[in-house]
Design goal:
This protein is α+β, with helices and mostly antiparallel strands. It has one helix and two strands, in the order E-E-H. It has one domain. The chain has a two-stranded antiparallel ribbon. It is globular.
Length: 56
């Protein structure tokens, strides 16, 4: 189906390990991941998930 993409990112390296996202989407995700990387890793390790803000 057109317009549907997927991406899997490594939390510590911020690299896309699987997927077919357009390069612009990857850049936006990387920007967001860089800002929240510590919180993402902490949530993954503790399994205490919370909603994080979007890009500013």
């Amino acid at each position: 189906m057109r317009g549907e993409y997927n991406g899997v990112f490594h939390l510590k390296t911020l690299e896309m390990t699987e997927g077919d996202l357009p390069s612009r989407a990857v850049r936006l995700i990387n920007e967001w991941q860089e800002e929240y990387q510590n919180e993402l890793v902490k949530m993954w390790e503790t399994k205490e998930f919370k909603k994080l803000p979007g890009l500013k």
